[in-house]
Specification:
By secondary structure, this protein is mostly helical. The chain has a domain of 59 residues. It is built from two helices and no strands. The longest helix has 57 residues.
């Protein structure tokens, strides 16, 4: 059995060559199709820019809220320290 497997392994052919896909914009793609694809990409870009701006506004809001909470906690700790120092 081992000889049979060894002989089969040696008889394999070379792997086939993988050819790259055709690049868009080559012959065979009409100007209308390219214009349509460009318009779709521009719409997607606009949507992504709007989404990015909303995310930036949300981050600013969260940072402001975080700063307010941090200041409030600091104020509460200072108040507690003042109360504890007054009792001593």
């Amino acid at each position: 059995m081992d000889r049979r497997r060894a002989s089969k392994a040696g008889g394999k052919s070379a792997p086939t060559v993988v050819r790259p896909a055709r690049a868009p914009g080559r012959a065979g793609v009409s100007a209308d199709a390219l214009a349509e694809r460009l318009a779709a990409v521009e719409r997607e870009r606009d949507v992504l820019q709007e989404e990015l701006e909303r995310a930036r506004m949300r981050v600013r809001l969260l940072e402001d809220t975080h700063a307010k909470v941090r200041d409030r906690i600091a104020w509460a700790l200072d108040s507690l320290h003042s109360i504890l120092d007054g009792k001593s």
